[in-house]
C-alpha cells in the first residue's frame, strides 16, 4: 500500500468517504506524496507522453498560431504569454524558438507560467533559461494586459466529481474503505438543481461528471480576454458533452485501476468541451477542432517535410512516427481537440 493510500484511509475512518475530486487532488498534488509533486512524469521513460514531448512541431505550430492571433489584434505592445500546466516547459521553449522571427513578439511578451508543482517549476526554469519567465498561482495574478494563453493536457488533470442517476435524483460516487482498502461507493440519492439539465439525456444508472475548477478557470480567462484582448488555445482529450465514467489511471503507458496506487499513477478524466465553451462567455469559443485537423491547417506536413530533409536513419523513422502520432485519427488526431477563446470582435486564431 502506498503512503498516500494509508493517509487517505486514516482520513476516511475519521471523517467519512471522499469525493472523487478530493481523492484526485491529493493523488496529483499532495505536497509530500502527490504524483506531480514527487516526480517528472513525462516522456518515453515516464508514465505518459504529451504532444510537445512527441515532437518540436507541436509547440512550433501552436506558437505561430498564437503569434498570428496577436498580429490580428494589432500586435499589442505589452502582453502576457501564459501557459497553464507547462510540464517540463518543452512547449514554451519550442514556441519561443519558432516565434523569434515574428517582429516585436518577444519584446512585447511577458512569459508567465501557471504551475502548481514546485518540482515542475524548477524543471521549467531549467528548460527556459536564459529566457526571463515568471510564475503565477492563478489567472487572477496575471498582469492586466492582453492575454495570449496556451494549455495542453492541463484541464484533464483537474479534479472531477461523478454523479450516478437514480430514480430519486443523483448519488455521488465516493471513495471509501472496504476490507481495509480503498473502494468506490455511492452517497444516498438527492435531487440536484445543478444537474437538472442532465435528466433529458440520462437514465437511472448513468454517470455524469462535473469539473467546477475547469469552468471557473475558463471563466477567468474569458473575463481577461474580453477586457484586455487576447486569445486562448485549450488542447485536451475529450468530447463535446461528456457522459459516463472517464476517470483513468495511467502508469508506465498502461491503464490501471484509479484506486490501486494513489500518488503513483497519473489520474485524469476526459474534458467536456461543451462545459468549457459554456463557461467562455463573454468571449467567443470557436471549435473544438480535432488536433489532427488543426495541425494540418497550421502546416504540419510542410514543417515535417522541411525537418525530414535534414534527417536519416532512426531519427527520420522516429520523426515520421511522431508526425503520424500527433495527427492520425487513430492516434491523437481525433481524440485530442482544441478550443479557441477570443474576443467577439476579433477573428478566431488561424486553423479554427
Ligand atoms: N502541458 C504539459 C504538461 C501536462 S501535465 C505537456 O503538454 O507536456 C499537467 C500539468 O499541469 C503539470 O505541469 C501539472 O503539474 C500541472 N497542474 C496540474 N494541476 C494543476 C493545478 N491545479 N494548477 C496548476 N497546475 C496544475
Would you spell out the secondary-structure blueprint of this structure?
Blueprint: H1 3-15, E1 18-19, H2 20-29, H3 35-38, H4 51-54, H5 56-72, E2 79-84, H6 90-98, H7 105-108, E3 109-114, H8 118-128, E4 133-136, E5 147-152, E6 161-166, E7 169-178, E8 181-186, E9 207-210, H9 212-228, E10 230-239, E11 248-251, E12 254-256, E13 266-268, E14 271-272, H10 273-278, E15 284-290, H11 291-297, H12 300-308, H13 313-327, H14 332-335, E16 336-342
Parallel strand pairs: 2-3, 2-5, 3-4, 5-10, 10-14
Antiparallel strand pairs: 1-7, 6-7, 6-9, 7-8, 10-16, 11-12, 11-13, 15-16
Helix pairs in contact: 5-6, 12-13
Bound molecules: S-adenosyl-L-homocysteine.
Explain the overall architecture.
The chain has helices at 3-15, 20-29, 35-38, 51-54, 56-72, 90-98, 105-108, 118-128, 212-228, 273-278, 291-297, 300-308, 313-327, 332-335; strands at 18-19, 79-84, 109-114, 133-136, 147-152, 161-166, 169-178, 181-186, 207-210, 230-239, 248-251, 254-256, 266-268, 271-272, 284-290, 336-342. Helix content is 37%, strand content 24%. The chain starts with a helix and ends in a 10-residue tail after the last strand. The radius of gyration is 21 Å and the shape is globular. The longest helix has 17 residues, at 56-72. Helix 12 (300-308) packs antiparallel against helix 13. It has two domains: 3-34 and 161-209, no CATH class; 39-155 and 212-296 and 324-342, Vaccinia Virus protein VP39 (Rossmann fold). Strand 11 (248-251) and strand 12 form a beta hairpin. The mean pLDDT is 95. The strands form three sheets. Strands 2, 3, 4, 5, 10, 14, 15 and 16 form an eight-stranded mixed β-sheet that branches. Strands 1, 6, 7, 8 and 9 form a five-stranded antiparallel β-sheet that branches. Strands 12-11-13 form a three-stranded antiparallel β-sheet. The structure holds S-adenosyl-L-homocysteine (SAH). The site of S-adenosyl-L-homocysteine (SAH) has 21 residues, from helix 2 and helix 4.
